Amino acid sequence: MPEVTTTAEETTAGKLPRLLAGLRRGRPTTLDEHHEQLGSMPSTGSTGERSELLTEIERSGLRGRGGAGFPTAVKLRAVASGPRPRILVGNGSEGEPASRKDTLLMARAPHLVLDGATFAAELIGADEATVCVKESSKEAAASLLTAVQERADAGIEEVAVAVRVVSSDYVAGEESALVHQLNGGSAKPTFIPPRPFEAGVGQRPTLLQNVETLAHLALISRFGAAWFREVGTPDDPGSVLITVSGGVTRSGVYEIAAGTRLGDLIKAAGGPTDPLQALLIGGYAGTWFDVEAALDVSLDHQTMRALGGTLGPGVVIALPQGACGVAETAAVAEYMAQASSGQCGPCVHGLAAIADALHDIASGRAAPGTHEWLARWSDDVVGRGACHHPDGAARLVSSCLDVFGAEIDRHERRRPCVPPAGMRGLLPTPGAREPAAVS
Ligand SMILES: Cc1cc2nc3c(=O)[nH]c(=O)nc-3n(C[C@H](O)[C@H](O)[C@H](O)COP(=O)(O)O)c2cc1C
Ligand code: SF4
Fold it and tell me: Could you tell me the fold of the domain covering 17-228?
């Protein structure tokens, strides 16, 4: 579990942190401490008041923090207008290997997540809420369960929240896969429609939100839309949690204003440990940027979309000059291929072939023309799966071809890739092959 390293001085204008304010080192915040810091949750009251609160969420401009950045109010309204009964699901699956922010929130600020879950459930008229936590996040699960009990002991009247332990697999956190698990099925995406908001858990209209999104809702319910908009950009207001790792002095989870310059975030993380060559923004479905271009990038959804990238679940990985971006991406491509749920041909065969070709390039074994073939295949798999998994993997590989072109040329001339110790495996790939290194 990374410790939180963000302070108000390190971010903007002394207005942050918000979500990470008051966290205790090495243990969860108790209910008393939580109430002392933030007061108790305001009641959602009558139907009229709930409708006003929905409008307030709309005014806040909150976007989902699970990857796609979809406006939260639109989802809330869609479920709230569906048939009863309805259900709220908090997504704490955090399948992205380089992300720690959801686990950190659930482990250290469980009451913020639970406040958000009960508030969202009440807003949509749900009588049930479930927060899902991945199997490997034992500390987060224990912390949530203790927090649920504390609330019951305190006699807080609210929608009952269940905590469910779910698969830690990469695609298990995709919304239809999560619903499928909660319905007793395997952790595999299902073919849509229907989408969860139409017919999800037990065929009920299901509001599925990332746990960071829920934590923001808990604060907006207390402090309002104007407060939320005090930081961030007009299109992407508020703060956002980013997990920073790789070649930086202090890896960890940082809370920044959306729209913060990446260079400023790297500075807040203590600066690079070695001169950097590139940065990966958005995680394993994200995009590589050359260091020159990356440091001035504004970390918000609108900017990232315009650059052909994504903020994803808020992941930044810094790649030092001594590391090989091609070998690192080959290992991630293999991880992504293995993560496929095995249901759609282009995803199963396409991702495996892409990973093999990238390994061949990185190890100096590639046949002439492999680079061009890879570019074509990466385009071809986009939009060809039942879920967006292949699209994300293809985006990562395409950006690798663009950013590490010189490195790829060198490898295609059969030059070996031998990153020194400490410069390999910077991108965690549970269970995948070692990054290619050939003598
Ligand atoms: C392959 C894949 C994996 C995903 N994994 C997660 C995950 O681990 N956690 C998460 O919150 N969202 C994940 N998502 C996004 C969810 O499908 C969904 O959009 C999100 O949980 C909605 O919450 P939000 O609107 O609050 O962001 C994933 C999406 C895809 C395509
Ligand atoms: S696109 Fe891939 S991960 Fe998504 S459902 Fe199809 S096989 Fe599974």
Answer: Rossmann fold (3.40.50)
